[in-house]
Each structure stands twice: as structure tokens, then as C-alpha cells.
Backbone:
């Protein structure tokens, strides 16, 4: 470069920087400095607080590694939830647009089926709490559209996740201070049963007793709150888009019951009360109801050790026949047992599906073994109006039905409330000549009932949102018991 060009450049630079102080020059000079972004205090807090909470949640826990995994999985689980909810919402929106009458009903049936399949896949993909949600839906036979109930029932009740033995051994050691091999004379690595929240392993105590050890799936207690809030968000979003589908009552029930079911010390206490109740002089089925004995020294909030019991599934009619037992006697024993829970003791086992009830032969008569005492509901004396309501239903007493329905927050729709409880049209509920103790159990009758659930989905959802929480669980219990009666082929004329 020539000397002339160098000097010319330096002179121009000097003139620009010292004498020509224009706004443009100032801008050019400033633009050469590094830019430091400035964030508001609110923005900084919005980032810092969640980060600090997440870090504390991970660090100050018994198992930071598991919580790290949950934190990493959460965005993917949330993305699956949103994608599933958006797909279901769009399907309902577009498939039912402009349809009325029979065409609407036919299209709605198909959308229900597709949506139920999507929800089922989501439950299996996310696992844990979602499996429990699917099982809950599968048991609401007369309260939700049949497409959802039947889809969930086909797989959710017998296809549950299985934890590895390494995870099981880790939880046992964390909670009890020793490995399964140290605590027991033998401990089977393969579970004999697995459910949504836990799995059961057979073991032998050092004194020779046969035991069943229930171990909670890893990470459930940590992910419970986040999963429940996510499900609540999705249910509220669907309700916002489709006011007809308001299942907030289902979310509220899950929020209330799940923390209790995840605390096995509560289940142990429930089992002890149940055994005490059916050993008392108040019961009419004394000696015919059994509850596995709890081994408290080997039990914690995540591990429950109990007596190992054998028996036939309550719905296995072939096994009942081999024991010389009649299905009618079994159905009567089941019904009497739960009637006493509701109307005498006020302490109700609210998850009585077939897998939680075993039958044994004792002195030529059936003996009922009750399992899984995690979900109970205490019924107050004030709530005993429920008994008065059923008395009015049995006698077709319209004034009594209206009076007791008002106590259940259903005064303005007492007729529909009665129909929902009895699964019969109102004219049959109040007809003097009707058999008010009869509940339809034939395939045709059940299909008609399930059709009502689809047809009156909005009314049922509104009703379930308003009624007391204990009644909601009793309705679920009634549905489970009706299913047992149906599989036994019995129609018992008892409450």
C-alpha cells in the first residue's frame, strides 16, 4: 500500500473521530462495542425460581437419580399429553360438525372409539399414574361412555408395568435397611402379580411363614403431583373446547385418592380395621370374610409385607364348582359384606374389582378374602342419608327420593339422579308394580344402560361434579359389584 493512501486514511479517520461528531458517527462507534442484554427483574425471577425449585426438588431427595430421570422425561410426557388431547379435540370438533340425530350418534360412537384407543396408548406410553387413570375409567361402567370403559377394560386391568428386580431390591433396601435376601429366607425375583402402582413378590420368612411382599414401582411418589397436574390441565382444556365433556370430578377424585394409595402405611391401617370389623359381633358374616395379616416390622410407605393367601378368583365359576360352591352363595356373600361396610361400619373398600377378591371353601361354604386395601372411604353418620335414599328407591317413594337427593346436592334433578343410581327410566323407578330390587344384568340390559351413559354424558358429568365425594366412590363400588354379579350370572334382590 502506498504512503499516500496510508496518510489519507489516517487523516480521514482523525477528522471523523475528532471533528465530525454526527449522530451517525456516534452510532457507528457504539455499534462496535459488545452488546450486553438487559433482562427485567420479573424475567430473571421467572427463570431463577423454577430452576431453584427444580434443583432443590432433585438434590434434597432420597433418590436424586430417579428425580433427574423424571425431570428429563417430563417434557416428553407433556408433549405426548398435549398431542393426544389436541388430536382427540380436533377429531370431535370436525367429525361431529353439523351433524344431528342418528348421524350425530353414529359419528359420536366412532369418535369415542378412536379417542378411547388414543387415550389407552397414552396411558401405556406414560405409565404409572396414567395406568391407574385407565383402570379407574375401566370400572366406571355406568358413568362414562361405553367405548372408553370397554377399551380400557380390555387391557388396563391385566397389562400393567413390571419393575426390574434391581429396582425392587433398591426400594426394599432404602426402606427397610437390608436387601431382600437378608430380610427373608427366600424372595422370588419374578413378581406373582403387577398392578398400576406396585407389584407383589412371594417370599418366605426366616420362621417359615409364607409372605406376599408388595413393592411400589420406582418414581411414582415423585412423579405423582406433576402427572396429576398435567392430567388436570388436559381435562380442563377439553372441557373449555367442549363444555359437554366435563370430567373434572374424575381428576378431583384422583387427586384425593392417589396420595393415600401411594402410602402403604395407610393401606395397612385400612386392612387392620377391616379385619377388626368383620371379627366383631356387629357383623352377620363373621368367620366368612378374611383379610391377610400385615407384617408391620417389614412394612413401610413403599413396601407392604403380609400373609400369603391362596384362593380362586371370585368370578372363576369353574373353580367355584370344583370347590362345591354355588355362584349364588358367593354373590350373596360379596353383597352382604359390602352392605355391612356401607350401612353398618361406615368404612368402605372402594376398589372391589374381581382381582381384589378371592374365594376359598370353608366348612362347605364360601369364604371371601379381601385384598388391596389402599382405597377406602369413611362414611359419616350424616352421610347415612344414602341409606334413606335407597329405601325410597326400593319403595318407589318419589317424595322420599326428592328429599334425600337434596341432601346429595341433586335436588333440582332428583329424577335423573334416581335413574342414574338404578339404571332404569323414571317411570319404572316410581311405578308401584315394578320390581325395585331388580337391576338388569343381561347383555341387552347392560348395553341399554351403557347407551344411557353415552346419551346423557353431559348430565351425568354435571351430576358427578356436584354430589359429595363419598357418594362418587360408592357409585364406583356399586359398578364393580354389579360387574361381579354379572360375571357370576346372578341377580340378587338385596341392597
Residues:
Amino acid at each position: 500500500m502506498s504512503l499516500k493512501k496510508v496518510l489519507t486514511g489516517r487523516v480521514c479517520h482523525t477528522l471523523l473521530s475528532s471533528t465530525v461528531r454526527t449522530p451517525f458517527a456516534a452510532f457507528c462507534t457504539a455499534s462496535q462495542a459488545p452488546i450486553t442484554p438487559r433482562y427485567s427483574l420479573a424475567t430473571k425471577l421467572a427463570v431463577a425460581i423454577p430452576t431453584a425449585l427444580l434443583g432443590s426438588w432433585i438434590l434434597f431427595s432420597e433418590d436424586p437419580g430417579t428425580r433427574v430421570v423424571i425431570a428429563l422425561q417430563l417434557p416428553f410426557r407433556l408433549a405426548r399429553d398435549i398431542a393426544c388431547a389436541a388430536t382427540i379435540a380436533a377429531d370431535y370438533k370436525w367429525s361431529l360438525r353439523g351433524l344431528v340425530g342418528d348421524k350425530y350418534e353414529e359419528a359420536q360412537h366412532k369418535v369415542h372409539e378412536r379417542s378411547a384407543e388414543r387415550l389407552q396408548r397414552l396411558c401405556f406410553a406414560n405409565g404409572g399414574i396414567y395406568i391407574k387413570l385407565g383402570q379407574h375409567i375401566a370400572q366406571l361402567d355406568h358413568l362414562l361412555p361405553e367405548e372408553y370403559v370397554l377399551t380400557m377394560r380390555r387391557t388396563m386391568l391385566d397389562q400393567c408395568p413390571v419393575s426390574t428386580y434391581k429396582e425392587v431390591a433398591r426400594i426394599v433396601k432404602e426402606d427397610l435397611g437390608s436387601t431382600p435376601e437378608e430380610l427373608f429366607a427366600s424372595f422370588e425375583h419374578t413378581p406373582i402379580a403387577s398392578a398400576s402402582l406396585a407389584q407383589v413378590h412371594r417370599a418366605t420368612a426366616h420362621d417359615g411363614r409364607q409372605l406376599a411382599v408388595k413393592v411400589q414401582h420406582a418414581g411414582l411418589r415423585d412423579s405423582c403431583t406433576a402427572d396429576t397436574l398435567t392430567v388436570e390441565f388436559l381435562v380442563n382444556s377439553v372441557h373449555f373446547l367442549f363444555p359437554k365433556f366435563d370430567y373434572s370430578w374424575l381428576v378431583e377424585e384422583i387427586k384425593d385418592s392417589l396420595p393415600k394409595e401411594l402410602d402403604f402405611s395407610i393401606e395397612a391401617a385400612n386392612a387392620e380395621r377391616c379385619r377388626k370389623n368383620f371379627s366383631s359381633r356387629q357383623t352377620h358374616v363373621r368367620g366368612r370374610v378374611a383379610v391377610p395379616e400385615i407384617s408391620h416390622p417389614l412394612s413401610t410407605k413403599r413396601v407392604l409385607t403380609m400373609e400369603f393367601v391362596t384362593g380362586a378368583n371370585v368370578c372363576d365359576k369353574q373353580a367355584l364348582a370344583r370347590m362345591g360352591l354355588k355362584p349364588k352363595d358367593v354373590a350373596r356373600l360379596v353383597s352382604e359384606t359390602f352392605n355391612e361396610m356401607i350401612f353398618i361400619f361406615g368404612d368402605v373398600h372402594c376398589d372391589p374389582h374381581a382381582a381384589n377378591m378371592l374365594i376359598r371353601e370353608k366348612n362347605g361354604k364360601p369364604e371371601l378374602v379381601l385384598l388391596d386395601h389402599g382405597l377406602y372411604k369413611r362414611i359419616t353418620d350424616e352421610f347415612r342419608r344414602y341409606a334413606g335414599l335407597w329405601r325410597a328407591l326400593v319403595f318407589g317413594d318419589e317424595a322420599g327420593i326428592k328429599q334425600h337427593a337434596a341432601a346429595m346436592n341433586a335436588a333440582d334433578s332428583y329424577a335423573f339422579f334416581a335413574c342414574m343410581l338404578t339404571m332404569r327410566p323414571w317411570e319404572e323407578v316410581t311405578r308401584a308394580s315394578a320390581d325395585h330390587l331388580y337391576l338388569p344384568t343381561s347383555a341387552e340390559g347392560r348395553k341399554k344402560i351403557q347407551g344411557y351413559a353415552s346419551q346423557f354424558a353431559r348430565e351425568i358429568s354435571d351430576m358427578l361434579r356436584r354430589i359429595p365425594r363419598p357418594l362418587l366412590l360408592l357409585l364406583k363400588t356399586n359398578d364393580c359389584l354389579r360387574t361381579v354379579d354379572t360375571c357370576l350370572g346372578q341377580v340378587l334382590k338385596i341392597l
